[in-house]
Specification:
The chain has six helices and twelve strands. The chain has a seven-stranded mixed sheet with strand order 3-2-1-4-7-8-9, with helices on both faces. A hairpin with a 2-residue loop joins strand 8 and strand 9. Helix 1 runs parallel beside helix 4, helix 2 packs parallel to helix 3 and helix 5 packs across helix 6. The model has no long low-confidence stretch (mean pLDDT about 100).
Length: about 280
């Protein structure tokens, strides 16, 4: 049994505001340990449940946040940026039996602690085939094309509710309860580590490869907080304006769709001006 852990940071234990996840800040340095604790708990739980291999893919910001030296020695980790499938790198080889989304969060325009989709700001909403989409939904559709089910999701309570829509069979763990975008009722790391480990052990029983799901073509719409960002996004081939601040594109598969989405967000990030956005 091989498990892929896609590890994001905004949904980690104790994380509630931007400085907690901004590389280089003192708060980020502190929260790296909390993030690592969540991920390691998932690793231990999957190994308890019979996994032979657990591969972690760092999915937050620089993708160099987890403390490798604190992970169980049986785990392996992909660290660093510029990967073909970004947040779910590793699933495309066709040998992953189950996927875990650890430290995930809700999407742009939704309630949730540090809610966003790829960009911390600028994007006010993303829709996949007409449904408002979080990173969880987008990534779940990608891994389904490779026959790998999402079996575990951790984050705040609203992230767990969101997961019920795209991975209804997955085991979920709320490590904190949403109060506002920058506040939460948090459990202690000792408690969340125990909860995540127990949940991952249970989730290992769901890690069974399935027939690849091909639902395409897929239409993705992205809405921005400024008109010029929509204009800038259209430099990506196939992306067209569908509103004053909105663009859309259609892809034959979610593999292509998520790669186009990454191109759009990369272009848009570069188009943001410091003061006016």
């Amino acid at each position: 049994m091989k498990i892929l852990v896609s590890a994001d940071m905004e949904g980690a234990t104790g994380v509630t505001w931007p400085a907690d996840v901004l590389p280089g800040t003192p708060q980020w340095e502190r929260c790296r340990s909390l993030f690592t604790s969540d991920v390691n708990a998932a690793v231990l739980g999957f190994l308890d449940g019979g996994a032979d291999r657990v591969l972690i893919n760092e999915a937050h910001s620089t993708m160099r946040n987890l403390l490798l030296e604190r992970l169980d020695e049986r785990a392996e980790m992909i660290t660093g940026r510029h990967k073909s499938l970004s947040m779910v790198e590793g699933v495309q080889h066709g040998d992953v039996d189950g996927v875990a989304f650890v430290g995930y969060h809700t999407g742009a325009g939704s309630q949730g602690v540090l809610a966003h989709t790829y960009l911390e700001n600028s994007i006010t909403g993303v829709w996949l085939d007409g449904v408002r989409a979080s990173e969880g939904l987008l990534n779940a559709r990608v891994v389904a094309e490779f026959g790998s089910p999402v079996v575990l999701v951790t984050g705040d309570d609203l992230t767990c509710a969101d997961a019920a829509g795209y991975a209804p069979d997955a085991v979920t763990v709320a490590v904190k309860d949403h109060v506002s975008r920058y506040a939460a009722v948090c459990r202690t790391p000792a408690r969340t580590a125990a909860d995540i480990r127990a949940a991952a052990k249970e989730a290992a029983g769901l890690a069974v490869r399935r027939d690849p799901v091909q639902r395409g073509p897929h239409t993705v719409e992205v809405e921005f907080d400024a008109e010029h960002l929509a204009m800038g996004a259209t430099v990506v081939p196939g992306v067209e304006r569908c509103g004053e601040r909105r663009v859309a594109y259609t892809s034959a598969t979610m593999y292509e769709g998520i790669r186009t989405f990454k191109a759009v967000t990369t272009v848009v990030r570069a188009a943001v001006e410091e003061q006016y956005g």
